[in-house]
Amino acid sequence: MPAQIPASMLQQDSDSRPYWEGLARGELRLQRCDACARTVFYPRAFCPHCSSDRLSWIVATGRGTIYSYTVAHQAYGLFAGDVPFIVAIVELEEGVRMMSRIIDAPRERIRVGAPVQVTFEAVGEDFTLPYFRLVE
Amino acid sequence: MGTPARAAIVGVAESDLGRTPDKTVLQLQLQAARVALDEAGLAFGDVDALFCAGNWSWSPNLMLAEYLGIRPKYTDTTNIGGSSFEAHVGHAVAGIEAGLFDVALIAYGSTQRSDRSRNRGNFTFRLTDQYELPFGLPTPVGAYALAATRHMYEYGTTSEQLAEVAVATRKWASMNEKAMMRDPITIEDVLNSRWIAEPLHLLDCCLVTDGGGAVVVASAERARETRKAPVWILGHGEAHTHNSIANMPDLATHQAAVASGQAAFAMAGLTPAEIDVVEIYDSFTITVLLTLEALGFCGRGESGAFVSGQRTAPGGPFPMNTNGGGLSYCHPGMYGIFLLIEATRQLRGECGPRQVKGARTAVAHGTGGVLSSAATVILGKD
Known about the structure:
The complex is a heterodimer. By secondary structure, chain A is mainly beta. Chain A has one helix at residues 17-24, and strands spanning 29-33, 39-40, 55-59, 63-72, 85-92, 97-102, 115-124, 127-134. The relative contact order of chain A is 0.21. Chain B has a single domain (7-115, 207-380), classed as 3-Layer(aba) Sandwich (Peroxisomal Thiolase, Chain A, domain 1), CATH 3.40.47.10. The radius of gyration of chain B is 19 Å and the shape is globular.
C-alpha cells in the first residue's frame, strides 16, 4: 500500500486545477488543442505543438500501454517504505505519455507494450492519483 | 580540421575528492581554482569571466566571486545539470570570440556526500513537477532505469552489456590514485549487486562523493603565453530536449547528445573515428551506451555490442573514461568538469600508467538532468 501523501504537499495552480479536480471525480482529464486537434499533457496555457491558446479539456478513455517501466527497490522520503514498486511511463490512447505506477500486478507480467487501464487511488485525504492496472 | 581554434584550456585541477567533511564548497573551488590558474601561470587577478553552477547559493557566482576576490566582467551560471561545464566551455569560447574577455574560470564544488543532502525526498509538488513527483520515482536513477528498459526492449541490450562499462571503468580507476573505488570487479559482481531501480544495479550507478574542480579557458593569444602547452577547443555544442523523463521524446535515443555532438564535430571538422580518447558522462552505465550511439561512435542500438569484450578498458581499442569515471573515481553531483580535466591531462600526456599513448584528440561529453541536456567539447593539441 503506497504511503499516505499529505495534500498540502501539492501546489495546484491554474494550469493544473481542472486536472486534479477531474481525478477527485474519477476522470483522467487531458487537453485537446482546438486548432491542431492534438492532445496535450501535462496541462498548460497553450498548445506546445502549434502555439494556439485555444485548448479544451477532454476526458481520457484511461486505456494505454506501458512505454517503459522500472521497479524501484530504493526510494526516498515518503516513498521509502513503498519499495518495491513499479513506476511506468504509460502511452495513452490519446497519444500522450504520462508517468504513473502500475499496481496489483505480478512482476513477471509487467512488460513494455502491455495494455493497462487507469484506476483512481486515494493516496491521502483529498489527494487522488491516476495509477494503472494491467488489463486482463 | 575546422577553423583555427580561438581559445584553449590552459589550466585544470581537482580539489580534494571523496569525503571532505571539513571543507566548504567555497574552499573546494578555491583549492581547485588556485591550482588550475597556477598551472597556467595566471592569478585570480587575471580572471575576467566566471562560470559556475551549483545550488548551494541563490547566486553561486556572486558568492564565489566575492570569496575569491574577483570582479568578473562576464558571468554565467548556466545550470543544465552535469553537462553544465561543457556548456560553460562553449560559452567561454563564444565570449572570447566576441572579444568580451580573455581568461575564464570555470569552477565547481560540492559537499553532497558529507552533507547527506541527496535524496532527502518530500519536495513540494509544484509547477510541472506535480505530474511526476507524487509517484515516488527515485531520481535520477529511476529515470535512467526507464531509459534502460526501453533500450533493452528496442535493441535487445542486456544487463551484461551494461555491466561491461562498469567493469572496464573500474580497471581505469585502478590506475588512478585519486579514484575512490579501485578494487577490480567482474560482470558477475555488477549483476549480483543489489537492485536500485530495475534494470540498474548498484554497480550500474555512479558514486556519491564530495569534490570540486576548475578549468581555465583563455584566448588563443593568452594561451600561447601560459605555462603548459594549450589544449585547443576545436568544437563545442549543447542542447536540451526536456526536463522530466516522461517528456523525453524517445527514451532509447539521447537526442540532446545527437544535437550537441553533431554541432561539435562539424565545428571541429572531425569525425568520431578521428578521436583518440573519449570521456563520456557516466552517471549510470546506460548513460554511456546512449551517448556512444548519439555521438556516432557506433550505430543506433549497437552500443551494447560496442562495449562488449571490454573494448573500452585499458589496452582496448576504445579508451574511454580513463580516470575511472563517475562510476569509480568521483561523482560530486555534477560530474562534467572532471571530464574536461581528464581529457586535458590525456592530451598533455600527464596520465602516467593510464596515459593513452599518442592521444592528439579528445571528446569530453556531459549529460545532465534525466538525459535532458548534453554538451560536447572536442579538444586537440598542436
